[in-house]
């Protein structure tokens, strides 16, 4: 095989790559915020002793942990609109799939983090006359989140990579733009190489930051 | 609202501050408390002694509802805690609402064996926390009151330290200041010196003793028999989930009538008056 590398066609339309990068960052931001905040609710729900909170939260986690994100995205895009009186945009479908899946996984992180705290912390708070909610907000969560930070940053990196699945419903993000460039110019080698390197350029600093964070948190103990 | 912390109630009233009737506690099949009757008047300093596993800590934890009693009645300031329901067979069940228990716990402070300080807050933050979150005080007022409590336990200069940088004795004194800041009517000490290195026990006992001399009402579960002798106004000896013997320190600790009390005291060699 003798391939002559030629990146000209890839760089010929920088606005296409820029639009892709913007799309990737947009869906990442949406899914990060939705996935983690919903995950916190689900994690708290699974910690609850009330069955009408615990059962739906557990069902949610088990359902979304045990189905592939790609299937969920396709289902939201192609199947759900047939059951609803309105259309669903590629962004909405992809963001729903990725956010709900992330919520299920980060919910488990939150639950584990909360459970890792000693009972004495609850008791210390309760003995002052705090309600369960006050104890959770003021005493338990601040400590639990510190312990969970490494796992949560890993989750963020996963969300960033999962955003490529949105290309399955033709949402404009980096991979989708790469596919477009490759099919227009018949240069899949260069197109996908550039896309992979762009992802690397985004994620590598993020991963390095988490290493630093983990080391710093370990020192704090 | 008055800024100054109100002085501890010292006046003896006819109504007991706390009355416990037929208190029982089971954990699964194990019955830890088998019917405790106890009356605590304002200003009482009650030391609770007993072998480990006798139920003495469980009794204390039932009084601020860290554990909910399986049956029996706890009255605080003349009113029953919880809602009693009589079922058809005549037995009485008590339902406790979290809302009511949070109010009770504001009146009944607790100091734990393991301190249970909040590690993400400074000493000052620990003492301020209840004033801010539970009492709803303004931040600067809460800080002023908290500093006064820290000064009282001799830790004014440690206000900005995190618990990880304090010794065990200092941690326990912060925990005492934290409980005091809430101005409880009754203070519960659950083996406050058992987790401490021997050389740190004295500083904590001195603080507790000073509180006793102020006339604070307190219940103290302890293994420090000598301390109990000097500080308590009444001593309870608990064995097998019941109050086996009680009386003045002199009666229970120097002239115990029950064989089990005598055997327990004989095992405590450090016992010196």
Q: Can you describe this structure?
A:
The complex is a heterodimer of chains A (about 220) and B (about 270). Chain A is mainly alpha-helical and about 220 residues long. Chain A is built from 9 helices and no strands. Chain A starts with 7 loop residues before the first helix and ends with a helix. Chain B has about 270 residues and is α/β, with parallel strands linked by helices. Chain B has one domain (about 20-265): 3-Layer(aba) Sandwich (Rossmann fold), CATH 3.40.50. Chain B is built from 9 helices and 12 strands. In chain B, the strands form 3 sheets. Chain B has a 6-stranded mixed beta sheet with strand order 8-9-10-3-11-12, sandwiched between helices. In chain B, α3 (about 125-135) packs across α4 (about 140-150) and α4 (about 140-150) crosses α5 (about 170-180). The chains are: A mainly alpha (about 220), B alpha/beta (about 270). The interface of A and B includes residues 132 and 143 of A.
Q: What topology emerges from the helices and strands here?
A:
The complex is a heterodimer of chains A (221) and B (273).
Chain A: H1 8-11, H2 14-47, H3 51-65, H4 69-83, H5 90-115, H6 119-127, H7 132-162, H8 174-185, H9 188-220
Helix pairs in contact in A: 2-3, 2-5, 2-7, 2-8, 3-5, 4-5, 5-7, 6-7, 7-9, 8-9
Chain B: E1 18-27, E2 30-40, E3 45-49, H1 56-63, E4 71-76, E5 79-80, E6 83-86, E7 92-95, H2 98-107, E8 108-111, H3 123-133, H4 139-152, H5 168-181, E9 186-190, H6 198-213, E10 218-221, H7 225-231, E11 234-239, E12 242-247, H8 249-254, H9 259-267
Parallel strand pairs in B: 3-10, 3-11, 8-9, 9-10
Antiparallel strand pairs in B: 1-2, 1-4, 4-5, 6-7, 11-12
């Amino acid at each position: 095989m003798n391939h002559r590398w030629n990146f000209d066609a890839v760089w010929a339309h920088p606005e296409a790559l820029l639009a892709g990068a913007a799309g990737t960052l947009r869906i990442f931001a949406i899914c990060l915020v939705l996935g983690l905040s919903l995950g916190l609710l689900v994690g708290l729900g699974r910690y609850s002793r009330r069955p009408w909170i615990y059962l739906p939260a557990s069902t949610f986690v088990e359902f979304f942990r045990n189905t592939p994100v790609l299937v969920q995205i396709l289902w939201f895009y192609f199947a759900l609109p047939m059951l609803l009186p309105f259309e669903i945009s590629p962004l909405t479908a992809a963001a729903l799939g990725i956010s709900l899946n992330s919520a299920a996984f980060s919910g488990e992180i939150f639950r584990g983090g909360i459970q890792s705290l000693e009972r004495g912390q609850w008791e210390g708070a309760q003995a002052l006359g705090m309600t369960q909610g006050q104890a959770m907000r003021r005493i338990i969560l601040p400590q639990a989140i510190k312990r969970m930070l490494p796992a949560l940053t890993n989750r963020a990196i996963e969300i960033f990579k999962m955003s490529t699945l949105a290309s399955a419903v033709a949402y404009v993000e980096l991979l989708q733009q790469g596919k477009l460039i490759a099919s227009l110019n018949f240069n899949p080698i260069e197109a996908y190489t550039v896309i992979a390197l762009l992802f690397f350029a985004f994620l590598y600093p993020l991963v390095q930051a988490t290493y630093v964070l983990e080391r710093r948190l370990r020192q704090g103990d | 609202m008055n800024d100054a912390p109100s002085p501890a109630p010292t006046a003896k009233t006819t109504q007991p501050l706390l009355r416990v009737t037929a208190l029982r506690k089971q954990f699964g099949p194990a019955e830890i408390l088998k019917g405790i009757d106890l009356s605590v008047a304002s200003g009482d300093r009650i030391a609770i002694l007993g072998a480990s596993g006798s139920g003495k800590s469980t009794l204390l934890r039932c009084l601020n509802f860290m554990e909910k009693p399986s049956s029996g009645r706890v009255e605080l300031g003349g009113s029953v805690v919880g809602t009693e329901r009589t079922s058809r067979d005549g037995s009485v069940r008590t339902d406790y609402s979290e809302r009511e228990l949070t109010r009770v716990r504001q009146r009944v402070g607790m100091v734990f064996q393991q301190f249970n300080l909040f590690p993400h807050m400074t000493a000052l933050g620990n003492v301020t926390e209840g004033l801010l979150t539970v009492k709803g005080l303004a931040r600067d007022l809460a800080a002023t009151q908290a500093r006064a409590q820290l000064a009282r336990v001799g830790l004014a200069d440690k206000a900005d330290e995190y618990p990880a940088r304090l010794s065990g004795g200092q941690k326990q004194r912060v925990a005492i200041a934290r409980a005091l800041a809430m101005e409880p009517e009754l203070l519960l000490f659950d083996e406050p010196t058992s987790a401490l290195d021997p050389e740190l026990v004295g500083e904590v006992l001195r603080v507790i003793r000073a509180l006793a001399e102020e006339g604070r009402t307190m219940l103290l579960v302890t293994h420090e028999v000598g301390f109990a002798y000097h500080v308590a106004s009444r001593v309870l000896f608990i064995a097998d989930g019941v109050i086996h013997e009680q009386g003045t320190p002199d009666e229970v600790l120097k002239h115990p009538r029950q064989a089990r009390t005598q055997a327990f005291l004989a095992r405590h060699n450090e016992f010196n008056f």
